[in-house]
Structure formats: structure tokens, C-alpha cells
Amino acid sequence: SQLTDVTLTSYCKTKESRDLIQRALMDNDFMKHLEQGQILTIMDCMHPTSLAKGCCVIQEGDDVRLNVVFVLTEGMVEVTKQGKKLCSIGPGKVFGELAILYNCTRTATVTALTDIKLWAIDRQGFQTIMMRTGLIKHSQY
Ligand code: CMP
Questions:
Q1: pLDDT tens for each residue of 102-131
Q2: Mean pLDDT of 5-32
Q3: 57, 85, 98, 101, best to mutate for ligand 1 pocket (most atoms within 8 Å of CB)
Q4: What are the Cα distances from residue 125, in Å, to 4, 57, 88, 109, 132?
Q5: Residue ranges lining ligand 1, Cβ < 6 Å
Q6: What average pLDDT does the structure give for the chain?
Q7: What is the spatial distance between Cα 47 and Cα 10, in angstroms, rounded to a whole number?
Q8: Ligand 1, atom nearest to 106 Cα
Q9: Residue closest by Cα to atom 17 of ligand 1
Q10: For residues 81 and 59, what is the distance between their CA atoms, to the nearest angstrom?
Q11: C-alpha 134 to ligand 1 mean position (Å)
């Protein structure tokens, strides 16, 4: 299938970054239910990115194919839905997980309140990790 052709790329990280990402994933209501091996692989495959203050990180309603899951490491973002503020998110938190996990359009808009630094994994990588772990588990029986 298409998924088995995807090459997962791991990105070098300091112990500090690895710990921060792992803690963020374990702290998230949805991601924490993943297996430890999946969490470690997601962490391994996340790449660094940054955006300037005022940038739109996620646009509410955007198509599922554009999905990326983020872990914020520096700065603050704001979550809004139909123009109404839901909350602000600071370092050590996951966002952008809902649309990938539920295969839906983005549920809210996320805007950078300051310059921000993030770790990111795209939909293809994320799904490959979910899929491969499933296949590996399956083949053990
Ligand atoms: P996603 O729907 O992929 O993209 C928008 C993100 O905003 C969503 O994932 C969550 O990570 C986040 N989000 C949506 N609603 C809320 C909320 N009520 N409180 C905090 N974060 C939210």
C-alpha cells in the first residue's frame, strides 16, 4: 500500500527536547492513549520549525490533507473558533491533534501571539507510525 512506501525520517534532538516532546505527548488527553513505542517514534520523527508573531499556524476548517501535529516549545499561541477565543497555549503542549485523530477538518484556528518555536510531524508520517505499529503487532500472532 501507499503507507508502507513512506520513509520515516528521524531528526536529531537533545535529551532536553526529547523529554519535552515525550512529556507533551503523554500530557495530551488523546495522544497519551498511544503505545509507548508510537510515542517514541512520533517524537523521533518530529522536525523543528518556527513562525513569527501574528502568523496563522492552523486555519479552522482546513482540509485534513494539510494536517500537521505540533508541540510548542517557545512562545504562546491562541486558539479561536468562529472568532471567539477558546484559550491560550504555552510551551510543552500538543496542538493540532484532533483533525488527524478524527480525520476531520481543523476544529479551530491557532495563531501565534509571539514568535514561536515548534516541533512538527505531518499527517503522512503520523499515519505511517500508527499503521506500521498496527502491522507489526498483527504479525506477532
Ligand atoms: P485541530 O482540530 O487539528 O486543529 C485546531 C486545534 O486547536 C485542535 O486540533 C486542538 O489541538 C486545538 N483546540 C481545539 N479546540 C480547543 C479547545 N477548546 N481548547 C484547547 N485547544 C483546542
A1: 889 999 999 999 999 999 999 989 988 988
A2: 93
A3: 98
A4: 11, 19, 27, 22, 10
A5: 58, 79, 86-87, 95-99, 106-108, 110
A6: 90
A7: 8
A8: 2
A9: 86
A10: 10
A11: 26
Q: Whose CA is nearest to atom 8 of ligand 1?
A: 96
Q: How far is the CA of 106 from the centre of ligand 1 (A)?
A: 8
Distance CA 97, CA 19 (A): 19
Superfamily in which the 9-139 domain is placed by CATH: Jelly Rolls (2.60.120.10)
What span, in angstroms and rounded, lies between the C-alpha atoms of 141 and 136?
10
Q: Return left, alpha or beta for 116; rule: phi > 0 is left, psi -120 to 50 is alpha, else beta.
A: beta
**Best residue among 57, 58, 84, 122 to mutate for probing ligand 1, ranked by most atoms within 8 Å of CB:** 58
Dihedrals phi, psi of 4, to nearest 5 degrees: -75, -15
